[in-house]
Amino acid sequence: MNKIKIGQIGIGHNHGEGKMLAVRKFPELFEVIGYAEENNAWLEKRGGLAGYQGLERMPVEKLLDKCDAVLIESDVWDLTKYAGLCISRGKHIHMDKPAGGTLEEYGNVLKTAKEKNLVVQLGYMYRYNPAVIKCLEHIRNGDLGEIYSINAEMSTFHPVEYKKWLTNFKGGIMYILGSHLVDLIVYILGEPDKVTSF
Questions:
Q1: C-alpha 19: how far from its chain's center?
Q2: Phi/psi at 33 (5° precision)
Q3: Is this structure's pTM higher than 0.70?
Q4: Are 148 and 154 within 8 A, CB to CB?
Q5: Contact predicate 92/119, CB 8 Å
Q6: What pLDDT shows up at residue 59?
Q7: Tell me: the pLDDT tens digits for 37-62?
Q8: Is the pLDDT confidence value at 112 over 90?
Q9: Average pLDDT, stretch 100-112?
Q10: How far apart are CA 99 and CA 120, in angstroms?
Q11: What GO annotations for molecular function exist for this entry (predicted)?
Q12: Closest Cα to residue 66, out of 37, 25, 34?
């Protein structure tokens, strides 16, 4: 089997180093080409992290010339920009979430990827959590009866600086973390017929 040549665009996303460490654990599957980061502030803050040690930093275009697939771990507001660029260059992508500021942005990425027969994987880690997989198996088997309502909560600690950063986005923490819950609820109940805000 040929190894997947993979690189990473951006190190500004909170999960960026973790994704790079994950692919580096499987050298029999992945040939890690390197990473691209154009923001000097992120290079100063995260460029020395273990996940990037020994890897070549290169311009985005050079990375795209060498890769089959790309991890997109840029600043949140640049995720769909880089996703669109990678897809236009015929690259499979893993893109962290959230998937852009509008449905149209992400919809364009998905539409082009489908036309080019490219894989788009969004960073929804709960889909691969063994406990969640087991729960979904019980739901599919009918072991829990008919699921007609879900009450969900997701909480975590964030320092004040992070909470201030969240004010950049419509929806705040719901925009960043709520998508995990919505993803699972849609998987369990199906797509909604109608959505009503409070």
A1: 9
A2: -80, -40
A3: yes
A4: no
A5: yes
A6: 97
A7: 999 999 898 988 899 999 999 999 99
A8: yes
A9: 90
A10: 11
A11: nucleotide binding; oxidoreductase activity
A12: 34
Helix, strand, or coil here: 35? strand
CA 53 to CA 29: how far, in whole Å?
A: 19
Scan for tokens 């998905």, then name that residue: 110
Among 67, 15, 23, 34, smallest CA distance to 177 is for 15
pLDDT at 198 exceeding the cut of 80? no
The neighbouring-strand residues paired with 7 are 34, 70
Contact residues for 6 (Cβ-Cβ < 8 A; gap 6+):
23, 30, 31, 32, 33, 67, 68, 69, 70, 71
Domains and CATH numbers, the chain: 4-123 (3.40.50.720), 126-189 (no CATH)
What would the DSSP string read from start to end of 50-117?
Answer: GGGTTPPB--HHHHHHH-SEEEE-S-GGGHHHHHHHHHHTT-EEEEPSS--SSHHHHHHHHHHHHHTT
